[in-house]
């Protein structure tokens, strides 16, 4: 006889997490940990960054947890700036405000984020470990 499934109106428990497959997202739905492949582009913050007065928009749009961090900016006191972790950035472009043909997108309201090719970043800063 076929299993009829749960009775109407009853609640079923979600499947228990499999310890062999660690979670890749946090409670907010952001990806956690280091990415698995090297992206074609990396986000780079320019001097125009003001840290959005302590509430950076780019952090909201970034799908990766702790990729964009607010750090003190000695040359722009009292403002802070965003620092992008190059080992976590996936190159998704959700943090930028300019799209193809300068179409305005959600993202940095100060246009202070540029996407550069990863090889160019590595030439200037050193090869990223993978």
Describe the protein's architecture and organization.
The chain is an alpha+beta fold and 130 residues long. The chain has two helices and four strands. It has a domain at 41-125.
What is the terminal-to-terminal distance? 52 Å
Count the beta strands: 4
Contiguous runs where pLDDT drops below 50 for at least 5 residues: 5-23
Give the helix proportion (percent range): 10-25%
- Outline: globular
- By helix and strand content, what is the structural category? alpha+beta
Strand content: 15-25%
Number of helices: 2
Largest sheet: 2 strands, antiparallel
The overall average pLDDT, rounded, is: 79
Q: Strands of the biggest beta sheet: in what spatial order?
A: 1-4
Q: What would you report as the Rg, rounded to the nearest angstrom? A: 20 Å
Secondary-structure element pattern, one letter each: EHEEEH
Quick overview:
The protein is an alpha+beta fold. It has helices at residues 57-61, 118-125, and strands at residues 41-45, 68-72, 80-84, 113-117.
List the helices and strands and how they pair.
Elements: E1 41-45, H1 57-61, E2 68-72, E3 80-84, E4 113-117, H2 118-125
Question: Top keywords for this entry?
Answer:
130 residues; alpha+beta; two-stranded antiparallel ribbon; 10% helix
């Amino acid at each position: 006889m076929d299993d009829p499934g749960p009775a109407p109106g009853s609640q079923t428990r979600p499947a228990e997490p499999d310890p062999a497959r660690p979670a890749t997202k946090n409670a907010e739905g952001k990806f956690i940990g280091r990415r698995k492949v090297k992206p074609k582009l990396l986000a780079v913050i320019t001097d125009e960054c003001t840290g959005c007065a302590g509430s950076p928009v780019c952090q909201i749009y970034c799908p990766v947890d702790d990729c964009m961090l607010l750090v003190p900016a000695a040359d722009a006191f009292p403002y802070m700036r965003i620092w992008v972790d190059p080992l976590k950035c996936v190159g998704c472009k959700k943090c930028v405000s300019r799209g193809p043909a300068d179409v305005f997108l959600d993202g940095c309201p100060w246009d202070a984020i540029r996407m550069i090719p990863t090889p160019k970043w590595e030439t200037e800063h050193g090869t990223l470990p993978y």
